Structure formats: C-alpha cells, structure tokens
Amino acid sequence: MNRREFLMASTVAGLAASTRFAAAATRIDMYTSSDANVSDFYGNVVKPAFEAANPGLELNVVIARPQAALDAVVQRALAALSTKSDPQLDFIEQYEPTLPAGGIEAGLWTDFGKAGLKSYAAVNKLAIQTPYGLPYRGSQVLIAYDTTKLSKDKVPKTFPDLVAWIKANPGEFIYNRPDKGGSGNNFVNRAVHEVSGRDPLKFTVDNYSQATADEVLGKTWALLGDLAPSLYQGGAYTAGNTASLQLLAQGAVTMIPAWSDQTLQAIAKGVLPETTGLVQLTDLALCGGFSQAVIPTNSAHFEGSLKLADFLLSQEMQTAIIEKLGGFPGVDWSNLPQALHDKYADVIPSSIPTFPAGDWTKAVQDGWYRNVAPNISRT
Amino acid sequence: MITASHPRAEGGGLSGLLLVALPVALLIWLVLWPVLQAVVGTVYFPGKGFSLSSYAFFFTDAYSLRNLWLTLWVTALTSALRVAVAMPIALYLRFRSGSIAALVQSLALFPLFVPSVLVAYAFIRVLGPNGIVDTVLVALGLPKLPTPYLTPAGPIIGLVWERLPLTLLLLLSGLGRVSIASVDAARDLGAGGLTIFSRIILPRIQSSIIVALAFNVLGLFSAFTLPYLLGPASPEMMGPYMQRTFSDNADPLNATTQAVITFAFCAAFGLVYVRAIARGRRGPA
C-alpha cells in the first residue's frame, strides 16, 4: 500500500472507530505514565476484566509518557474545571495528588474518604498519605540474594548485620548509583536513616537545612565510604536497577538491593533463577512507595471512574497486582487469600518508610557522587 | 577527499546562495543560536549583571575537573586506538581484493548498524563477569579475566568498536589517493613494508588521519550511552555528568556551563578539522 492509500485507509478506519466509540455507552479515559509493565497490565489484564464485569463501560487506556505529557493533561483538566468543560480525563493510574499546585484547594481531585467506595475500608492504612490519592498498588526495595550461595537462615536481617556481612564477604554486594534507579537510591536512603536514628519522619519535603544535611550526610558518607572497598570490584556501582539484577543473575554477586516488583517479575519470567531469595530488613525496612490513583471531580464519567477505582481494590485485581505485576497490594493483606499471604510472607512489610523528594534527595544524590563514588580501590 | 570545484566567475551567484540558504538557516537556528543563548545565559543574568561565577566554580571544583580530565583522556586514547586498529584493516582492504577482503570489509563495517545500547548489553554478556569469555576460559582450564565492566576500560573498548567503521571509511578514502604503481615502484627499488608505509603512504593520507581524529574527538566528547552503562560511577564523562547535573540536580546553570566548556573543546578540534579540509583542497601535502 502506498502512502496515499495508507492515509485514506487510516482516515476511514479512524472515522469508523470514532462512530463506534460514539455508539458505545460510556468510555472511561484512563491515563498512565508508568513503565511498560504497568501499561501492559492495564491493557491485558484490567481492561478485559473490567469491561466483562461492567457491561456498557469501556476502558480506554491512554499511555502518556513521559511524565511531562501527563502533567499537561492534568493542567488541561484544571483549566477545564474553571470553565466547567469536559476535561476528557476520567482516571489517572498514578499521579501525585498534591500536584498541580493549588489543585486540591480548587477541588480538582476526588476525596476518596468521602467518595463512598465499597472497598475503601480495606485499603492499607500505612499507605494512605492523603485522601485525594488512592494507593492501590505499591512496591518496596528489598534485599535479593542467591540462595545457592547463602542459606536462608544466614541472611542478614538488620542493617548492622548487612554491613557486617558485606565486609565479611568482599566483592559479593553491589548497589546502583542512587540517581539511576530506586533500588540503589533507597539503599543509600536507608544508610541515611541508619546514621540518624532510624526515624524516617525526621526528613520531610520542607525541612531541608544545610546544617542538618552536613551533619547527617557526613556520617552517611563515612558509613558508605567504609563499605566501598568490600563492594563488587572494590567499589563499583551499576548504572541502574536492571544492571544490578543482571549481575545477580550472572552469579557475579550474591546480594543486591532490588525493587520487589521487578524482582518478582524477573523470577516469574525466568530472568532470575527460582533460587533467588528475598528478604526485608526488620530493624527498619528499606524505602518504598505506593502508586496513587486520582480521579478529577469534573470527570465526565465520574460514576464509571469510581467503579474502576472500586474494581482495582477488588480481590481479583489485587491478587493480579501481586501475581502478574509483582507489586504489593494496596489493600490490607488480611483481605487477601491466606495462601498468597504465606507465599509472600518474607516480603510483606510491617512499615513502608519513604524518603522525601526535593532538596533532600538532591543533596543525597549529588553528595554521593562527590563523596562516595570516587572512593575506589582497584587492587 | 573533496575536490575543489571551479566556480564560474559570474552568474549563478544568487542560485548558489539560495541553495545553501536552507542549511545555513538551520545551522543558525539549531546550532549557533542555542550556543549563543548558552554562552550568554551563563555569564549574564538579567537584573544582576555579568558574572563568571559558574565558570569559576567549574575550574576550582576538583570533582568537575576530574570529570573533564577523564573525558579528555578517554577521548585521546579512544581516538588513537581507533586509528591504530582501523589502519591495518584499511591497508589490507586497499591493496587486496577478492571474497576474503569483501568479508573483512563487511565485518569491519558491521558496527555501523548496531545501536550503542545493544553494544553495551552485548558487551556485558560477553566481557562482563561470568560472561562468554569467562565461560570459555574456565572451560579451557584457564583463570577468569578481570572484567573491564564498570571500570574506565569498559567504555573505551565499547567506544573503539562502536565507531570503528567511520574511521575505517575515512582512512580508506585517503588511501584511495595512494597509487598502487608508486607502491610497486618503491618495492622494486627494494623498500621494505615499513619504509613504504612511512615514506609513501603516510604522507599521502596525513590529512585523512587528521580528519578521522577530529571526527572521533567530536563524537567522543559527547559520548553518553556507553560511558553511562559500562563505565565507573566516578569519575564521569562529560555527557553523563551534564545530564545528571541538569535533570537530577535540577541545576541548569551549571549544566549549561559544562556544556559551554565541552563545546569550546569541540570547537577547537572542529577548527583542526576545517584546516585539514582546507589543506586537502589545496592539494595533498
């Protein structure tokens, strides 16, 4: 088919598609800017199940990557709110509800506490940061290790034990550069927590001060710098989450920090062997986070959007999030089958600490490059 | 090499200008204008006046200087290695023909069609820890090699392989100017291989080598993917360093300063390239 024919054919197809949508009862425009594993999950798992369970509703999965594209869509929704027009946006799978600035005050996001969701009471209380976001899936950084080299009962369970293990087994641990992926980043953040009294609440988005940073981060660099000679190749750091997983898969190292969802998915796909073990630190867990879904109050299909939110919290979808996406459930584990609970017992967190974005993260990442990364011993 | 044309003394001036107008306009819009913006934006701050503080910071900051030195060092070594590796292949291809030469040529040009991300992951699989090379060595009862992955040698090996074809093509085009008759004549007079290379061939391809080096330097200075995926966390090459300063540290001023400094180095090598071209046009040395 030549170019002209292609253009004509696609125009005809487009017209046919738009009339079909016009004929369909209700189309919910759902947006995501998450990685391909998440958008695939929506297209292949959520969409068919949701449409089967709700006749007359159609789920339109719109991929808005990168984040800036989604930001523009949200700005449009905020503008539509003031002009009372259709924002052409019904649901965002993951968005920071405190954005855009002034959005909550203007009444842009739906308050889930008051929206009357059937399953809202089941949501994990640890995960709710604001009622304007619905934490329906999460993931957390864990320690992944090779059970053929290290038996399950000898795995370090606290940060001091982990440090001792790394020093006793030089070359067997690696984490990635903190700005290149969350697994290494949250390992470094955990070191910050370790030297500051294991209290994640000490660090918030708006309490950065140079004096505190100098004191706390100075100790962190001392701790991590001391660890460097015992790391893989005497102080090498991979360029991302995947590169660390690759070194673990190739048997080059015994232990790495890793995202729970990436690791579980890698094991399920055979990228990592079945013999990969996972463990969470018990003195204070490594950081993680929940994805918060948001619904604009001016959504043209508000009732349908709420149905989607409720559907995502259903046992069926929450189980799929664990088994197909490798994520953590947004609902409390007590609402899920016991068998599932037992299978993932090692990785169920008792707490999910977070580390604030903004000045703290900038200081940690750039400081790490200047103070920790150059300490390399190639002997 | 580009041969000098013979412009007509008159007429065709306007149509000639129109022909170059589009590329020149694109150059001004997409290259010169942003460069000017970057230079002005790092020294002049509306409402505050002129300041060279971001440059002062760069040239007094040991961390930034170490990154710049690494970039210069990797660039110099990689350029030299590329020419050194490409030269024997180019000589072979110039003076031999037949099916084996054709095979060598297609193998040597193959990297031209491989994206650098694939090069990086293939590298990790082959030369990385417990990779194919290690597997073969262990099977032969030999000890494993220390892997170049995540060391400064990693990006150098990757970069040499990745852009070898361009260097090879430039050298081949230079060697095209070496007549086989003159090589045969020298050989008849009893000159050895080394003498032929240094007295007959090298003088004829001098400008090609300079052009190849200049091209390499320009590409290497802005290398990103391979240093990022294969190199050590620190020191960083300027490409990854600029990206990190801009997006992770949210510090456009210092990122732009780094870019201007990088651009200044590249412009200097660009000058070398332009002079080599000009000399090539006047006729080979």
Automatic annotation (TrEMBL), chain A:
Q: Which domain of life is it from?
A: Bacteria
Q: Which residues form the signal peptide?
A: 1-24
Q: Does the keyword Transport apply?
A: no
InterPro entries in the cross-refs: SBP (IPR006059)
UniProt keywords (A-Z) are:
Periplasm, Signal
Q: Does the keyword Signal apply?
A: yes
This protein's name: ABC transporter substrate-binding protein
The organism encoding this protein is: Pleomorphomonas carboxyditropha
Name the lineage. Bacteria, Pseudomonadati, Pseudomonadota, Alphaproteobacteria, Hyphomicrobiales
Automatic annotation (TrEMBL), chain B:
Name where it's found: Cell membrane
GO cellular component annotations, sorted alphabetically?
A: plasma membrane
GO BP term, example: transmembrane transport
| Record-annotated ABC transmembrane type-1 domain positions | 68-273
Could you tell me the membrane topology recorded for this protein?
Multi-pass membrane protein
Q: Does the keyword Glycosyltransferase apply?
A: no
Q: Which coarse location class applies to the principal site listed for this UniProt protein?
A: membrane
Under Pfam families, the record lists:
BPD_transp_1
- Residue ranges spanning the membrane: these are 12-36, 68-93, 100-124, 209-230, 255-274
User: Per the record's keyword annotation, is Signal included, yes or no?
Assistant: no
Q: Which InterPro entries match?
A: MetI-like, MetI-like_sf
Keyword list (alphabetical) reads: Cell membrane, Membrane, Transmembrane, Transmembrane helix, Transport
As for family, the record states: Belongs to the binding-protein-dependent transport system permease family. CysTW subfamily.
- Protein name stated in the entry: Spermidine/putrescine ABC transporter permease
Species: Pleomorphomonas carboxyditropha
